[in-house]
Amino acid sequence: MSEYQVNDNGYYGNFGGAYIPEMLYPNVEELRQQYLAIIQSGDFQREFDRLLRDYVGRPSPLYPAARLSERYGANIFLKREDLNHTGAHKINNTIGQILLAERLGKKRIIAETGAGQHGVATATVCALKGLQCVVYMGAIDIERQAPNVARMKMMGAEVVAANSGSKTLKDATNEALRDWINNPVDTHYIIGSVVGPHPYPDMVARFQSVISAETRKQLLEKTGRETPNYAVACVGGGSNAAGMFYHFLDEPSVKLVAVEAAGRGIHSGESAATTVLGREGVLHGSRSILMQTADGQVIEPYSISAGLDYPGIGPQHAWLHKTGRATYAAITDDEAMQAGLLLTRLEGIIPAIESAHALAQLEKMAFKGDENVVVCLSGRGDKDLDNYMKYFGF
Ligand SMILES: *Cc1c(COP(=O)(O)O)cnc(C)c1O
């Protein structure tokens, strides 16, 4: 049993657990008792593998980026999650959770979404399986993210506006939790990252671990070794990073680098650099590190990339940070945008601005020449074209 994986009590070191209202206990407990048996069953694994292959398009390529490698003086490999159906890694998790929901006999799916990416990935698998789908979204986010709202509606999902508080992600999360309390029997709540009460962080990490499982095989073919010198990934809640790190956690020779969003600067007051600015506390049902005021109010995060705009990190990341197993870095909006343009110009790949944060970290690393570096390219940049155009004035 790895010291970096969840223990029998649902904790990573002193992080994790299930800090939930009593009314939610039956739902979370049902999941906790059943998730491992279900996802380890042959029937589940066969269907999961089949859908990842035939529907998502896996394995995603491990692309040796020649011109990027030349620039940085190391062998840079990009794990191409941007080529997945719906354009990012999020679909790996929603496929896993919809199969789980089916096996739990659930007929109705709820989710919360901020920028709409997780909402789209959820609406997609609900259409695939013919299950009812309700996505909660802050009223302000609904206005800001019209194309994703349209995608969800086209898939047949109902998009419900959260009109309380700041009308953004945390308010949508509250509405989704209220819904789940009121519909404990027929409804499954699909959480979109390695956050929330146990068993969500472990469950989501297992679904995303396909990223590092494939990477090991592909590296062996391409370099003769299953492990890289570095694995680099961006962190909002931390699911693509958790998937990229999963099968390397107990390989001390692999340096794990997680990249958070520093927004307009770590100390600008507009940032999402949780490991620098945060303190230990409870957020969305688990004990972790989060950005909070002296009296414990959650601080609104900021990043130019909607997917990294989250005030905490998942409990496993809090533990990897505390133990020093992974290094946590922070990249500003400007650095990320430049890295996004650089990849586009050097390799002809427009990355999601989230993924561009991971790429920007390469500028700050010193390589010894022949080292192998895997960067998780978590998503494609189509959704960010407006942002790129405005930023660069094209
Ligand atoms: C949502 C998203 C992220 C951030 O989520 P994690 O759970 O931290 O992986 C990163 N990249 C892309 C492309 C996203 O859509």
Task: Using the coordinates above, name the CATH class of the largest domain.
Answer: Alpha Beta
- Estimate the mean pLDDT confidence: 96
Strand content: 15-25%
Number of domains: 2
Tell me about the biggest sheet? 6 strands, mixed
Number of beta strands:
14
Low-pLDDT runs of 5+ residues are: none
Through-space gap between termini: 52 Å
Strand sequence of the main sheet, in spatial order? 3-4-14-9-10-13
- Radius of gyration over alpha carbons? 19 Å
Indicate the CATH architecture of the largest domain. Answer: 3-Layer(aba) Sandwich
Morphology: globular
Protein name: Tryptophan synthase beta chain
Enzyme class: lyase
Modified residues (N6-(pyridoxal phosphate)lysine): 90
GO cellular component, one term: cytoplasm
Question: Any overview of this molecule?
Answer:
- The protein has 16 helices and 14 strands.
- It has helices at 25-39, 42-56, 66-72, 90-103, 117-129, 139-144, 146-154, 169-182, 200-208, 210-223, 239-245, 274-277, 315-323, 333-347, 353-360, 385-392; strands at residues 11-12, 15-16, 62-64, 75-80, 108-113, 132-138, 158-162, 187-189, 230-234, 255-263, 279-283, 286-290, 326-332, 372-377.
- The chain is of the alpha/beta class and 394 residues long.
- The chain starts with 10 loop residues before the first strand and ends with a helix.
- It has a six-stranded mixed beta sheet with strand order 3-4-14-9-10-13, sandwiched between helices. A four-stranded parallel beta sheet has the order 7-6-5-8, with helices on both faces.
- It binds pyridoxal-5'-phosphate.
- Residues 88, 90, 117, 193, 234-240, 307-308, 352, 354-355, 378-379 line the site of pyridoxal-5'-phosphate.
